[in-house]
Amino acid sequence: MDYRLPCKNMKDIAYGGGIREILSRADELQRSGRDILHLEIGRPDFDSPGPAKRAAMRALESGDVHYTDMAGTFELRSEVAAKYSRDAGLDVDPGRELLITGGAIEALSTVFLTLLSPGDEVVVPAPYFPPYEDIIMMAGGVPLRVPCTMENGFRPQPGDIEKVVTPRTRAILINSPNNPTGATLKADEISGIADIARKHDLLVVSDECYEKFTYETDSPHIYMASLPGMRERTFTVSAASKTFSMTGWRVGWLMFPAQTRQYIMKSHQSIATCANSFAQAGVAEALRSCQADVDRMIGEYKRRRDLMIEMLSGIEGVTVPVPSGAFYVFPSIKGLGVPSFEFCTRLLEEEGVSTVPGQPFGAPDGYFRATYCRPADEIREALARLASFAARL
User: Which residue of 53, 129, 295, 298 has the smallest Cβ count within 10 Å?
Assistant: First the structure.
């Protein structure tokens, strides 16, 4: 049977070598009895907030098990709108400018399915979250990579972005704080990107899933939609997944210009119909009452970040920039003289430490990603093993 796969929109997508394959191999080794330390998956290790879990259970027990409004419950949309009012000073209409989605991935898929015609280009600073390119290509678009250097803290520079813009360019995709590097755009950089969008009449898709994960007073999160002239051209993606340690709840949201609503809703209807009903009740409660849980979690992540930077900085051949956000480090191992895939594969097989090479994130050879979503004692042990492995190299 000739299934004619991959189809045209999927022919350039990578089908192996990513985060999930590495996690599967790590899990396989663990099942065989190996002691594996997981630094590969960006999954908060804290429990979801108690009030949120209780709200979801109450919703379940009361029979809240049916379709919600396609845009999400008005309760949750109202809480998301209140969040943007508090955090960004934005007056968001929950009835016309917000959509509750099945996680941030569904929000991104909805946006690009709505915005892109075949051949439309999207500027994607690299390193980036791997599904970005896949989603753009599956929607018929063309990703335009803009390499970001360690010397610039892996932050995309407006001048580099403008160089790749063509008449076919439709949008710029930004992610700050960034996965995989932890880079957080500075005020002049995000303003410069906004200037380019206005100058060339481009849209901006702003992935702000790590908006709460900032650690330095000189690198606060800046909401693209809050900048002058950007509200009407910005599509903001975020989620409860990282902020409230709710990755399995699969609830995210999309803030969009009201004029695009009917098209956004049509795409969302075709992908997901609506987000989980009782999970929405829990996320609404999290937004309402669980900021203290978030603050405690982020305080602990900052301590873990500092521990990881201290230990990595002491390993000869490894250079690590200090991430100002998210919960990842993205060190250079060029000084060790070993390709990234070989380094990560051998580190897993020989030392039981699971990390991810930089190439699946659009980075050149010579980098890897590690997350500090693990307890401090596990981080210490993992980096001690990594130091021993690097010394053998």
Answer: 295
